């Protein structure tokens, strides 16, 4: 997206991607710990506690990963919106044809449809008793 824009994206987007990669590494490490400890039980009485501890650590890591995924998807969507708006504003044509496939152009192509939609939304709703 930085290449398409010709300028760097907002600083929060690479930071979000770095945090997402870190969450992936933490989840992988917790899973490896769980597998290792399940395959090599240390003591008979302590194995249940260790297994439960490993599973709870893995659950926490997966929860953090899920939060990270949502934030990353949002950041990338914002970067895409800024990139496509920037390309449309400056009238740049790209190899992928972003200008011709934009939602804004499809919506502005038929002004009669927009007018009829506006009329429908401008009428106040009446509540009958």
From TrEMBL:
It comes from the Eukaryota. This is MEIOC protein. It holds the Pfam family MEIOC. GO terms for biological process: female meiosis I; male meiosis I; mRNA stabilization. GO terms for cellular component: cytoplasm; nucleus. Residues 114-129 have a biased composition (Basic and acidic residues). Residues 89-129 are annotated as: Disordered.
């Amino acid at each position: 997206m930085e290449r398409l824009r010709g300028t760097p994206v907002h600083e929060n987007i690479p930071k979000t991607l770095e945090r997402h990669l870190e969450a992936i590494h933490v989840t992988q490490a917790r899973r490896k710990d769980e597998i290792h400890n399940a395959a090599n039980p240390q003591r008979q009485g302590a194995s249940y506690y260790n297994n439960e501890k490993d599973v709870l650590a893995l659950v926490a890591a997966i929860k953090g990963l899920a939060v990270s995924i949502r934030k990353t998807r949002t950041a990338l969507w914002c970067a895409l919106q800024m990139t496509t708006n920037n390309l449309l504003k400056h009238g740049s044509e790209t190899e992928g044809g972003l200008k011709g496939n934009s939602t804004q152009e499809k919506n502005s192509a038929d002004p009669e449809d927009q007018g009829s939609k506006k009329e429908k939304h401008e009428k106040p709703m009446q509540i009958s008793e």
